[in-house]
Write a structure and sequence with these properties.
Jelly Rolls, HutD family protein, Uncharacterised_HutD/Ves, RmlC_Cupin_sf, globular, mainly beta, 2 domains, RmlC-like_jellyroll, six-stranded antiparallel β-sheet, five-stranded antiparallel β-sheet
Length: 194
């Protein structure tokens, strides 16, 4: 097991693929040996971003996306065939990056967390850690993002404090167990399969 504390001052910023906003990039991975780290070489990305006005989402063929509101409320994603309800904070929605989506904001701007992965290269999960309790972690990469305030977790027999806005990156070579001891966090999990 390897753990790394990622601090907000080390996060990077990058434009949305369609140029409509700015991501705060918390962690990502690209294909080994890729000459440029861009959307074409992306394996997965964990990021937060504000959505301040209704508008279209970026077209991302071959990318699976998970998203949840962590600030504000009232977000609805609309496509020609489906609606994704994120009106309540910490509700996870899953959709394909090639789906034509337009946002609707029912109660003003929101802050969201996105976990994206190249389809066929990685499997992803995104959920909220809101109540103390034990949960299984598979071998892979896990990101515990302390959304606002400090939180603490237990990982196996070890205890970790994650400062507000920070992220604990956990790299596991075998399954383990995680328990939230205090606070509120978002857990993103990635398993490379391709």
């Amino acid at each position: 097991m390897k753990t790394t504390l990622l601090k907000p001052e080390h996060y990077t910023r990058s434009p949305w693929k369609n140029g409509g906003g700015i991501f705060t990039d918390i962690a990502d991975a690209h294909r080994a040996g890729a000459p440029v780290k861009d959307w074409d070489s992306l394996l997965w990305r964990f990021a937060s971003t504000p959505i301040v006005a209704p508008g279209p989402f970026s077209h991302m063929p071959g990318i699976d996306r998970l998203q949840m509101i962590v600030g504000g409320r009232g977000l609805v994603l609309k496509s020609p065939t489906q609606e994704f309800d994120e009106r309540e904070p910490f509700t996870t929605v899953r959709f394909a990056g090639e789906l034509a989506i337009v946002t609707e904001l029912e109660a003003g701007p929101v802050e969201v967390v996105n976990l994206m992965a190249r389809r066929g290269a990685a499997e992803i999960e995104l959920g909220a850690l809101r109540e103390p309790g034990d949960r299984a972690l598979f071998a892979g990469t896990h990101l515990v993002y302390a959304v606002r305030d400090d939180c603490s977790i237990r990982l196996g027999d070890a205890h970790f404090a994650v400062p507000g806005g920070g992220t604990l990156k956990i790299e596991l070579t075998e399954p383990s167990r995680l328990a939230l001891a205090s606070g509120l966090a978002v857990l993103g999990s990635i398993r490379i399969v391709g």
